[in-house]
Design a protein that fits this description.
By secondary structure, the chain is of the alpha/beta class. The chain has ten helices and 13 strands. Helix content is about 35%, strand content about 20%. Bound molecules: guanosine-5'-triphosphate, magnesium ion and zinc ion.
Length: about 350
């Protein structure tokens, strides 16, 4: 099989790229206006013409010329994005694309300590927002004190999402992960620094390709991986290693949330008010389910956190909404002040 077909090049992408006078290539990494890309018989470094948008890791492009230049790119079939950080608004787009054309977004979660469920939930929402399938990759299972218990906790926190137990030390789960990619699919690994992303990549590749953190030595707070990079898996498919993300920022879209919380979304359909916020509204099916144990209180708390994160994202992206919200809070504050003054004047009742 053609090397590019093994990582997902199909007739559709070929046809799109054929419109440009060049050959198909897949971007493995980018730096300062240049890309490193895989072609059918190796790797090229190609320049990006001034003014053209820089492709991202995972993009399908056409390259031509000597020295090679990117002459066109295929429409993205989904992309993992995050809102640009504050103060980084000089860029035209409010979103930063982390990886393009990914089929699986793997939330890498070490189980040597209790997993951070709120973080995993955010990751699942982010994965759904990208249009890809989420996958929770539990790592370091060889160090887990109570593996069965931790896996059960993760599965409860990720309704409808596959949770795969892996260890680079024992090799557990690596074949299963490879099998997910063998059909030419691409996975991107997301997770905090030190969770074992690069170690997992090396296990998949059966070679020490990515540098991993030394066991000894003080690497506190330092990221071992500093670039996003796409790597070809020997049995087919590709994996994108990423630098640890300190926090996962959501884009404000409720679709991802509803896909990640199908249980809450289904209950919400039974609420008396169609725009119920499940706070104190009468006839709220979600609150009812929490009260009678049908919905775990912690799961509902996870949902609320996602809603809050989404609402924040919307406010950040929309200055007018931000001003409206500030005004609303200001009004609430003044009303509370007035009520307090009234109370102090007329005594508590
Ligand atoms: N015992 C054990 N240790 C592991 C496993 N996977 C990774 N580690 C160790 O965890 C540490 C961090 O691994 P990395 O692969 O460098 O972590 P990373 O997620 O790539 O980190 P960044 O590149 O900084 O984002 C290393 O010391 C690894 O040896 C595992 O399955 N079992
Ligand atoms: Mg790494
Ligand atoms: Zn409700």
């Amino acid at each position: 099989m053609d090397a590019l077909e093994a990582i997902g090049l199909d007739a559709g992408i070929r046809a799109e790229l054929a419109a440009y006078d060049g050959r198909p290539a897949r971007v493995v990494r980018t730096d300062r206006g240049r890309v490193t890309a895989l072609v059918s018989d190796g790797t090229v470094r190609a320049g990006v013409p001034a003014g053209a948008p820089t492709p991202v890791t995972g993009d399908w492009v056409a390259v031509a010329g000597d020295p090679p230049v990117v002459v066109g790119s295929a429409e993205r079939r989904g992309a993992l994005t995050r809102p640009r950080p504050h103060g980084d608004r000089a860029e035209a787009s409010p979103e930063q694309v982390l990886a393009a054309n990914v089929d699986l977004v793997a939330l890498v979660t070490p189980v040597d300590t209790a997993p951070n469920l709120r973080r995993v939930e955010r990751g699942v929402v982010m994965a759904y927002e990208s249009g890809a399938t989420p996958l929770v990759l539990a790592t370091k299972t060889d160090l887990a004190a109570d593996l069965a218990g931790t896996m059960a906790t993760l599965e409860e926190a990720c309704v409808g999402v596959e949770v795969l137990a892996t260890s680079a030390v024992t090799g557990a789960g690596i074949d299963t992960l490879a099998a997910h990619l063998a059909t030419g699919r691409t996975a991107v690994l997301l997770g905090a620094s030190g969770v074992g992303k690069s170690t997992l990549v090396n296990a998949l590749l059966q070679a020490d390709v990515m540098a991993t953190r030394e066991v000894r030595g003080d690497h506190k707070g330092r990221h071992t991986t500093t670039h996003r990079e796409l790597l070809v898996v020997p049995g087919g498919g590709a994996v994108i290693d990423t630098p640890g993300l300190r926090s996962l920022t959501l884009g404000g879209d409720d679709t991802g949330r509803d896909l990640a919380f199908p249980d809450v979304a289904e209950l919400a359909e039974q609420c008396h008010f169609h725009d119920c916020r499940h706070d104190t509204e009468p006839g709220c099916a979600v609150q009812q389910a929490v009260a009678d144990g049908g919905l775990a209180a912690d799961r509902f708390e996870g949902w609320r956190r996602i809603r809050a994160a989404n609402e924040n994202a919307v406010l950040r992206a929309d200055p007018a909404a931000h001003r409206r919200e500030s005004k609303r809070l200001g009004r609430m504050y003044r009303e509370a002040q007035a009520a307090a003054r009234y109370k102090s004047r007329h005594g508590r009742r």
